[in-house]
């Protein structure tokens, strides 16, 4: 497992951060919007957003109208490595379960 995948999984380990990702799937949002929707204090939301950025899941930009505001959005391709790892893991499980089934059925015959 790569360090980037470890960071992604670490970022997604917290339920508040997963909920923030769900909200960002709907549309980009400011930190204040996310904090309000999640019922978090701004400093707590800031910590969660730093973790999501470190995990490579979100990126931020300043809108043209106000450089003090940051708008967060999901980063394109951020979960590609995670999806590949999950698909590989699922394929291995399926193979092992099929082999186990063959073994069990062979013993009972």
Overall description:
- 66% of the residues lie in helices and 9% in strands.
- By secondary structure, it is mostly helical.
- The protein has a three-stranded antiparallel β-sheet.
- Helix 1 (3-12) runs antiparallel to helix 4 (42-54) and helix 3 (31-38) crosses helix 4 (42-54).
- The N and C termini lie far apart (40 Å).
- 15% of the residues are buried.
- The model has no long low-confidence stretch (mean pLDDT 91).
- It comes from Sphingopyxis granuli.
- One of its GO terms (molecular function) is DNA-binding transcription factor activity.
Proportion in β-strands:
5-15%
Percent of residues in helices comes to: 55-70%
Q: Look at the structure and give the CATH class of the largest domain.
A: Mainly Alpha
Name of the CATH superfamily of the largest domain = Winged helix-like DNA-binding domain superfamily/Winged helix DNA-binding domain
User: How would a crystallographer describe the biggest sheet?
Assistant: 3 strands, antiparallel
**What class would the helix/strand composition place it in?**
mainly alpha
Number of E strands: 3
User: Globular, elongated, flat, extended or rod-shaped: what is the shape?
Assistant: elongated
What name does CATH use for the topology of the largest domain? Arc Repressor Mutant, subunit A
Please give the count of helices. Answer: 5
Number of domains: 2
Spatial gap, N to C terminus? 40 Å
Order of helices and strands: HHEHHEEH
Tell me the strand order in the biggest sheet: 1-3-2
As a whole number of angstroms, the C-alpha radius of gyration is 20 Å
Rounded mean pLDDT score: 91
Architecture of the largest domain, CATH level 2?
A: Orthogonal Bundle
Uncertain residue segments? none
């Amino acid at each position: 497992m790569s360090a980037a995948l470890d960071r992604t999984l670490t970022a997604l380990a917290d339920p508040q951060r997963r909920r923030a990702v769900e909200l960002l799937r709907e549309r980009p949002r400011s930190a204040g919007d996310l904090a309000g929707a999640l019922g978090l204090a701004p400093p707590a939301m800031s910590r969660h957003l730093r973790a999501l950025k470190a995990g490579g899941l979100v990126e931020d930009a300043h809108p043209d109208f106000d450089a003090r505001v940051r708008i967060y959005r999901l980063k394109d391709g951020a979960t590609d490595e995670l999806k590949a790892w999950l698909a590989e893991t699922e394929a291995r499980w399926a193979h092992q379960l099929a082999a186990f089934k063959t073994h069990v059925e062979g013993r009972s015959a």
